[in-house]
């Protein structure tokens, strides 16, 4: 019976979209619960961000690894294994009672998410028609955005009326559906034997982990402390070692010749900067809603859904538009909208009306929808066919690096206001004035980051699709 579903295009698109949904749901469903989790575990606002950061570090370090592994072992095998690891990690997160347990199991959960989300874009190219790439990528992004939209809503209600531990259990039944549907619908792809650059994997993980650790904990330990300076030096050393390793490895994790392609490098760098503001928004706004506006966790979750709602509405339109005109032109519009959105968010304060807040969130969400799908299509279209799996991983890696930098840098900019006023403190010491000023500082930086993304995209030139 299940064999009759094999290669059904609609169901194939559905299972790929489900992977995107799961990945985004698990990010946003946690964000709205951060203030509650900080109180439960008795940690500072900066420390609780590691619930998000550990997830981002793993994704940004291993997305390319699993893109390459999928080409070697087959897309279906890696995809389904990822679902299994993910739901196991989710169940363990749900029963965690100590903060260190939660972080360990979040790492496991992230490994699973990396396996299936890292190849989602490449699977669109692998399994679905070429003439509908923009449309299908737009749909996959939109379904992922639905996960972003439902995450805060579900997370808010579950945290307020049940217990935040249950926000992890929700992944289990969805993941089981993904495994069954993926097994039935997907055929195994051709395998391309090769080796995996394990030293490169270790080096990029250490390089990113130490950098993000320094960005996040600089206020706690002091920017000139031995541990922070040591982390920064360690990061620089391992980035240099990573580049050296990739230049000499027989089968490098990242082919530096691929990154030397001008359009690929510019668009990927733009991805990093463009994702910083949105990442900052999803971790900082719950504190603004609950501390400054006095909203309940569930109401805060409903407010956060406005950004994904904008993505859901605008995403498919941007995807279709990128099938008709050069995708980098659409991306350029997204970057310009993002600058405006960040400037609006930087003005949020205790007296801001709900309508004004909603407008700011919708603008930022629309910028993500107008930027990401067309830029993904642009990168994949500019990539030779032999690099498609790696290109898909690179897109997601640059997104996750941007998320890590956004969470670390914008979070630190906001926390700096608290540290300079009252010193390190738990979330119960936050005041509306401190949070508002922190938000202002963070999104001025966000506007600058989006401005850099705009300039980088403006430098790209669209060529015909490479196959």
TrEMBL record:
**The UniProt record lists the keyword Transmembrane helix:** yes
Q: Which UniProt keywords apply?
A: Cell membrane, Membrane, Transmembrane, Transmembrane helix, Transport
The signal peptide annotation in the UniProt record is none
**What top-level branch of life does the organism fall under?**
Archaea
Where is the major localization of this protein?
Answer: membrane
Q: Where are the transmembrane segments?
A: 12-35, 47-66, 78-97, 103-125, 137-158, 164-186, 198-215, 221-244, 264-289, 301-321, 330-348, 354-372, 393-419, 439-459
Tell me what topology the record assigns in the membrane: Multi-pass membrane protein
Q: Which residues form a coiled coil?
A: none
Q: Where in the cell is it found?
A: Cell membrane
A GO-annotated cellular component:
plasma membrane
Q: Does the keyword Cell membrane apply?
A: yes
Which Pfam families does this entry report, sorted A to Z? MFS_1
Domain Major facilitator superfamily (MFS) profile stretches: 12-465
Similarity comment: family membership: Belongs to the major facilitator superfamily. EmrB family.
Q: Which NCBIfam families match?
A: efflux_EmrB
Quote the protein name from its UniProt record: EmrB/QacA subfamily drug resistance transporter
